[in-house]
Amino acid sequence: MDGFFLIDKPIGLTSHDIVKRIKQMFHLNKVGHTGTLDPFASGLLIVCVGKATKLSNLLAAKQKSYTGVITLGKHFDTYDITGKVLMEKPVHSSKKDIIEAAKSFIGGYEQEPPMHSAIKINGQKLYKLAHQGKAIERPKRYVEIYDFEVLDINDTHISFTTTVSKGTYIRSLAVDIANHLDTCGALSVLRRTRIGDYHDSDAKSIDQLTADDLINLDTFFHQYPKIALNDYMIELVKNGIILDERQTSMDVPFVVVDENNRFIAFYEPINNHQYKPIVIR
Fold first, then answer.
1. pLDDT digit string, tens, across residues 64-99
2. Domain boundaries, the chain
3. Least confident of 117-131, 133-147, 149-163
4. DSSP string covering 254-278, please?
5. DSSP letter (8 states) at residue 276
6. Which residue in the list 2, 8, 17, 38 is annotated as catalytic?
7. Is 38 known to be catalytic?
8. For residue 134, which phi and psi values (nearest 5 degrees)?
9. Cβ neighbours of residue 163 closer than 8 Å, sequence gap 6 or more
10. Strand 254-257 relative to strand 263-269: parallel, antiparallel, unpaired?
11. Rounded CA gap, 1 and 209, in Å?
């Protein structure tokens, strides 16, 4: 099995729990996901199996969309309401203030990730330090907020939808919006609705999943540019040869197919019209 499963992760399970279940269900060794969803969050989790695990970074780099709720007035160590309350501040913002504050984050900004995250600093995962009661300085990372729409404001609860770049923590965004309003806040609900071209409406629950739900490599790569090579070159491709301008001059990733249009390998540019294989069937 080589390909992808679109899973609708329920609240309460970790992304690792889903990976473990799929390993057990289909007796697989190589299984991974393309971006963690916290246990309190639900929604789309793309799980890679077999040779597709080499493509996890390709999907992790895609834009992601979410719906959720920010609750103002309390700051939690986890940046969501599952953690310990560290601070409380009154909320004096009007609906207009909240909408303008949210809109002010559309674009790019330097975001500090939460301590409760899987980021490594000096070889240590932040969440492990957080569990030890430690907090260290975290380098800010440039992220992009492509859109942020306030759907409803009910007392101190802000319902929203947003689309963001790779590496964006919605929990940090919630805290930053609250700080902008001179109060504190945390994420109380989160659901991932989209990763690239894949939507949560296409996903299955882990209990409904069957082998027929696998998106195979041929389907996944059908929109990529293709180059067809003869049998001699196909044998070289299967052995991991670097391609160059003698085969193509494209500056984008592409698929190599044989003379019968069968998928053989996926290549990415490296430099000077050279291309390396990422996945070989």
1. 999 999 999 999 999 999 999 999 999 999 999 999
2. 3-62+197-219, 64-195, 224-280
3. 117-131
4. EEEE-TT--EEEEEEE-STT-EEEE
5. E
6. 38
7. yes
8. -100, 145
9. 63, 64, 65, 66, 145, 146, 147, 194
10. antiparallel
11. 14
> What average pLDDT does the segment 257-263 reach?
91
The encoded tokens of residue 65 equal 């969309």
CA gap 194, 103 in Å, rounded: 21
Q: What is the pTM of this model?
A: 0.89
Q: For the domain made up of 3-62+197-219, give the CATH fold.
A: Pseudouridine synthase (3.30.2350)
CATH of 64-195, one of 3.30.2350.10, 3.10.450.50, 3.30.110.40, 3.40.980.10: 3.30.2350.10
How do residues 6-57 score in pLDDT, each as one tens digit?
A: 999 999 999 999 999 999 999 999 999 988 899 999 999 999 999 999 888 8
Residue length of the chain: 281
Q: What stretch of H or E contains 102?
A: helix 95-103
Residue 93 contacts residue 101 (beta carbons within 8 Å): yes
Locate 89 and state its tokens: 């501040």
| Fold of the 224-280 domain | 2.30.130
Rounded Cα distance between 208 and 197, Å, is 22
- CA 71-61-234 angle, to 5 degrees, is 155
For the record, the structure tokens of 122 come out as 């000096």
Residue that is written with structure tokens 């044998």 in the block: 235
Q: Tell me the two tokens of residue 247.
A: 């085969």
Maximum distance among all alpha carbons in the chain?
Answer: 72
